[in-house]
Backbone:
């Protein structure tokens, strides 16, 4: 029996997500979580119940009721408020998530504004949670580092569940619905792993085991863009990440299969309206890739 396709590793290796624990314990009353550029949140509600509210223009539900232990995942900056009973506050472990490239991270763009998932739905989650809770209940050497890695494991387990249950998760059309498609996923993983190769429509369709017309139609239906546009946008995302890391435009162009730096510059101009150099020199761009400082409740904008 062939092993199942690994749909996440190549994506997460190129565009990493870094977790940082900032709270463990009860939250009572109203707690505000402020939006910060390039920063998401992963909350684990261990026990209790609560209401979560969002602003009317956030794209998320105005109010959510969380009645059982759950994960609450915010892949993009989005202000939200937890409302807990003053006498019996829910017990939480919370981490911020820094996405490589900020809002341009492929997963950050593909996910809904908030994902609420009861812990009982995800098989195997109890082992990770047992380790996480053990680390957050008392201070020990290396506690923060280990807790951060456990949050990253939780995120991967959550993403696995979303890919395996796209209809239950009500995923928007995009990358994750494409990766959830058995045939399209083969092509998407190949593009993620080898973006610099010559990818014609015929080759992409053959990789999926489909005819060219059936592949093109299914791709557009599942990802809301053509295969050529997806490949160009994927290459662009990689080029942006490598520019932020200090690589030269020529070196990036060579890696991505462009004949010259000018060809890569044309892609930037076509998609972003500016050259790679002008894009890199935009004010505030460095904030999308920098690591946030160590956090306390006040420093990330939590107010009770």
Residues:
């Amino acid at each position: 029996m062939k092993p199942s396709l690994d749909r996440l590793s190549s994506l997460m290796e190129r565009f990493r997500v870094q977790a940082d624990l900032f709270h463990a314990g009860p939250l009572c009353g109203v707690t505000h979580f402020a939006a910060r550029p390039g920063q998401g949140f992963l909350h684990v509600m261990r026990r209790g119940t609560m209401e979560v509210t969002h602003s009317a223009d956030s794209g998320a539900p105005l109010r959510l009721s969380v009645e059982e232990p759950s994960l609450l995942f915010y892949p993009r900056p989005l202000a939200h408020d937890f409302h807990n009973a003053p006498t019996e506050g829910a017990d939480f472990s919370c981490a911020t998530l820094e996405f490589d490239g900020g809002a341009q991270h492929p997963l950050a763009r593909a996910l809904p504004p908030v994902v609420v998932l009861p812990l009982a739905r995800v098989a195997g989650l109890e082992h990770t949670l047992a380790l996480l809770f053990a680390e957050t209940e008392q201070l020990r050497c290396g506690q923060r580092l280990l807790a951060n890695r456990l949050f990253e494991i939780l995120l991967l387990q959550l993403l696995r569940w979303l890919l395996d249950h796209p209809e239950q998760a009500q995923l928007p059309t995009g990358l994750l619905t494409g990766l959830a498609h058995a045939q399209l996923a083969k092509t998407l993983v190949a593009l993620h792993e080898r973006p610099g190769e010559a990818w014609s429509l015929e080759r992409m369709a053959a990789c999926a085991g489909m005819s060219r017309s059936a592949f093109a139609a299914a791709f557009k239906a599942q990802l809301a863009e053509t295969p050529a546009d997806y490949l160009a946008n994927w290459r662009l995302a990689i080029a942006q990440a490598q520019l932020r890391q200090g690589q030269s435009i020529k070196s990036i162009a060579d890696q991505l299969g462009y004949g010259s730096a000018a060809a890569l510059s044309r892609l930037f101009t076509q998609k972003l309206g500016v050259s790679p150099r002008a894009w890199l020199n935009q004010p505030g761009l460095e904030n999308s890739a920098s690591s946030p400082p160590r956090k306390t409740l006040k420093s990330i904008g939590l107010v009770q």
Observations:
- Residues 287-304 have pLDDT under 50 and may be disordered.
